[in-house]
Amino acid sequence: MxxxxxxxxxxxxxxxxxxxxxFVAPEFVFGAGSRSLAGRYxxxxxVSRILLVTDPVVAACPWFEDVPDSLAAAGLTFHLxxxxxxxxxxxxxxxxxxxxxxxxxxxxxxxxxxxVIDCAKGIGLVVSNRKPIGAFRGVDRVExxxxxxxxxxxxxxxxxxxxxxxxxxxxxxxTKFAIISKSVVPDASLVDPETLLTLDPxxxxxxxxxxxxHAIEAFVSNASSPFTELHALRAVRVLSGAVLxxxxxxxxxxxxxxxxxxxxxxxxxxxxxxxxxxHALAHGLGGWLDLPHGECNALLLPHVVAYNYPAAExxxxxxxxxxxxxxxxxTSTELGKLIVDELLRLRAAAGLSATxxxxxxxxxxxxSIAHNAMQDPCNATNPRAPSQRDxxxxxxxxx
Length: 399
Ligand SMILES: [Fe+2]
Fold this sequence. Notes:
By secondary structure, the chain is of the alpha/beta class. It has helices at about 40-45, 55-60, 65-75, 90-100, 115-130, 200-220, 225-250, 255-275, 275-290, 295-310, 315-320, 330-350, 365-375, 390-399, and strands at about 25-30, 50-55, 75-80, 105-110, 140, 150-155, 165-170, 175-180, 190. The strands form two sheets. The protein has a six-stranded parallel β-sheet with strand order 1-9-6-4-2-3, sandwiched between helices. Strands 5-8-7 form a three-stranded mixed β-sheet. α4 (about 90-100) crosses α5, α6 (about 200-220) packs parallel to α8 and α11 (about 315-320) crosses α12 (about 330-350). The longest helix has 23 residues, at about 225-250. The chain starts with about 25 loop residues before the first strand and ends with a helix. About 55% of the residues are buried. Fe (ii) ion (FE2) binds near residues 158, 210, 214 and 293.
């Protein structure tokens, strides 16, 4: 066998086994009932008092009590902090940090979706570094590591429980900012498909599409590697079918487990390959209108893929094959149309095909949203480097 034989077979334009590649992932336990290991995992960090970060909807779920019960069984006490909204605000992070200090906590446990987990990460950064949360915006701006943090994700989508990302909404400026740092990778994630059984169909669709977008953007990212491709492609194969089925059959635990595994795979991929302009625009849009993150992605995905396609045609061909589309014999133009049509079909079937206009975006808003999106680090790994005008046009097409 020669070196040429073991080179990656997927044409990424730059993949070589000789390039330096890093892959960061926390310890995770996947499986039904893993939420009940929270106490045992936190106990390993020699801590005693936990800030349990969640939201009121999750705290009311029938399975939730197993988590505080596990803390008690491990001899740990906790203080509950549930004042977290969707698209967590900067001031919620600061309130949570005050609660952490007042209650004398020495570790964090996040039980919830991406909003709860991102808020908990923000609390950890603030209490360790004694700075306002805005000080960490951007890439690698964290000096001191967070206190120990364990996560129990309860949506099959955001993968904040394994990622190097935290997204916070700056309410006064109507923007969301990304914090990207190895320091915000949790210490452990307990990925329990049973927590999805109480997720409503709308959020199942939103978070499932978010996960699919993570996999797609990670795969076409110009920072992808053989290590991220592996996870991205498996995520696309699993999620393309399982997300919609699981929204239709919410009590099917096998389907829920597939979505949870697909979302985890997508998270491992995007945490290490980063994302692209769907997410940059979704952060701009979500900050502007306070819409669910997954819905923002769904509204933008087909338009960004149509924009990106000429710059990464071979990558999209591999993705289309993983989605189960018939790619053989298609011309370049036919394939591009096939992929965009399939994404339009998927989001319509998920009930996420509204226009930006119907959500309240006006033509006059596109400039501000595009301006905010241009500041987002996710653009840096998009396969086609967008100008602000490019982003404005994408938004106008989605109106
Ligand atoms: Fe996302």
